[in-house]
Amino acid sequence: MGPPRPLVRVATTLAFCAALTVPGPGPLSHAQSTASAASAGAEGDRPWTDRSLSPSDRADLLLNAMTLDEKVRMLHGTIGSPVPTTGYIAPIRRLGVPGVTMTDGPAGVRNGQKATELPAPVAQAASFDTEVAREYGRTVGSEARARGQSQVFGPGTNIQRVPVNGRNFEYFSEDPYLSGSMAGADTVGIQSQGVIATVKHFAANNQETDRMTVSAEIGERALHEIYGTPFDLAVRQGEPGSVMCSYNRVNTVYACSNAHTLRTMLRSRFGFEGYVVSDYPSTHATSDLAAGLNVELPLSFHVNPLSVRAALHRGDITKEDVDRRVREVLTVLFRFGLFERDGTATSPIDEAAGNDAAQRVAEQSAVLLKNDDDALPLGDATSRIAVIGAAAADSAQGGGSSKVDPLSEDRALDAIKERAGGSAHVTYHDGCDTKAAAEAARSADVALVFAHDKEEEGSDRSGLSLPGNQDELISKVAAANSRTAVVLQTGGPVLMPWLPQVASVLETWYPGARGGAATARLLWGDVNPSGKLPQTFPAAEDEVPARTRAQYPGVDGTAHYSEGIDVGYRWYDKTDTKPLFPFGHGLSYSDFTYSGLRLEKNSGGPDDPVKLSFTVTNNGKRAGSEAAQVYVSKPDTEADSPPRELGGFRKVSLGSGETERVQVSVAPRQLSFWDTETDGFRVRKGEYGVAVGPSSRSLPLGASYQVRE
Ligand code: BGC
């Protein structure tokens, strides 16, 4: 099969009834790649093959040997690779420069071949556990390597600004610190396999409506604090070899032509040393090379020998620009050892290992939103079970370039039958006929309704309601059986008009190749739910931070980010708006209590971290994990900062009755704000609040901390 194309919208397989009605790891960091280089000497007249030299010295030597046309070839993606890819930089055989094979994407390898379908990337953030993100990345990286890919287009790191964004399932969170921490860990995981990660889509690519043209009009403060920070943290923590610039414009200038975002922010302020690839046809001029673009990918036609010569002649770009961009690409290729190995070599994918990883992520990221009277977990004696909804028989996946062709996929229905045991009576109803489904529920001990939405690249959701007849279905089933549990498979928030009627709601995102097994284990309590919401679930369609047409989807080609830094829970808290479920919310079958908050010091300078510790105790009967969250309230809250912002988190696993003293260090960056006067992050002096607890709206512990000059 040929490679998948970037722009086609892929329909998900699930119908809504209303419609019917590796090999060894590669180098991790710049430092490591230099240190680990063997002292192999140069081959003949190719001094850049000397592995004792640093990647950048080798790049300089190679650059000296290249003609202008050869340099330009490094800056343009093509097709025709020896293995199926999504993008490719052709080799330069005269100089021994390897081809660079590239593939989507954030949820698993998508190069036209099968791979492990991991849960939707948002699940990583819902785990509130960077080790989960690292494992996720390792899985993607090792399978990419097995498929002969040198580079993966992921992780997707954009902020979930509007809950209807069609690509929210591919992104992490509405919170920049959580997003950046996950992106950094995912990147480390991918690159631990010797595969280049591509943090995308920079910058402010927060909606699919008019995504190729819309201008995100953002003030500098929000651009840095909210939209830049996830990329900044990903770059600092993960050292990605690559970043992808986005389709949209930022303050009128296209993201791939934007010297402010690409050079000033990404390179100078964040310290990015890799290369920038375009999001396919997202380049607009040869001079994008001067603005900071390195490689335009297929479907873009602004970088070729003729156009580059003409741009040099006109003075739109200089020879130094071309050299700089090529050097940046070559340095990464040397860093990842691509001159020393055949990046296109393939090997079998370890399918069992991939599926195990997918299941672990699904189990760690499911969020128990509601559980009245401990209706879940199901007891071993539950014998009559009505399973309802098409997603139980064919789990949902997001569409577009993150849609993976799975090596295998399980079904929740089968896993439920197996877990319930041979003596149980499990019925299945697809839910298209709501009356019949309710009848099936009436005679059961418990009704499990599977509901799903449809997020996909290329368009936004038309609203926050579950599509088709699903709200009616849940409502009718719940009316027939008070023990109704809803299992959601969604990429983000949905409205729940039926919430008061149902006993339990379990959000499983798009749960991946072993989502069925994970869901059954969660429902029976073989694994205790421990995910937390990385995005606020709004109570109503219009109770969201970007409520006007000017804000979203924008007017006359411009989306006005006039909510500034008040994105997600920052806005709900500032405006005292009650969401359906707040950021950070997630229940457990256990009962955790928090006590004994202690700050190591009660005051410090602007460059000091705030070190704190507190105790979490599992008072429940079951073992479980709890993602403890630390929020910071900055001084002058009323003037311009939101009431609280996530400053740290730590997930702990505790047996029944166990207690752990948890340490968290809040970095100065989490105390800072973007100062437009000095163009930098600054920590104000004054009194800071530090609050700790199980969600952004449940913070039992608090202390104050003083920042001195
Ligand atoms: C998407 C990218 C993707 C690329 C290649 C684009 O349309 O926005 O996320 O990596 O296609 O498939």
TrEMBL record:
Alphabetical list of Gene3D superfamilies matching this protein: Glycoside hydrolase family 3 C-terminal domain, Glycoside hydrolase, family 3, N-terminal domain, Immunoglobulins
Record flagged with keyword Ribosomal protein: no
Comp. bias intervals (Low complexity): 29-42
Pfam families: Fn3-like, Glyco_hydro_3, Glyco_hydro_3_C
SMART domains, alphabetized: Fn3_like
GO MF term (any one): hydrolase activity
UniProt keyword list: Hydrolase
Residue numbers spanned by region Disordered: 27-55
InterPro entries for this protein: Cellulose_deg_GH3, Fn3-like, GH, Glyco_hydro_3_C, Glyco_hydro_3_C_sf, Glyco_hydro_3_N, Glyco_hydro_3_N_sf, Ig-like_fold
SUPFAM superfamilies: (Trans)glycosidases, Beta-D-glucan exohydrolase, C-terminal domain
Keyword Hydrolase: yes
Domain (Fibronectin type III-like) ranges: 626-696
Family membership: Belongs to the glycosyl hydrolase 3 family.
Name of this protein: Glycoside hydrolase family 3 C-terminal domain-containing protein
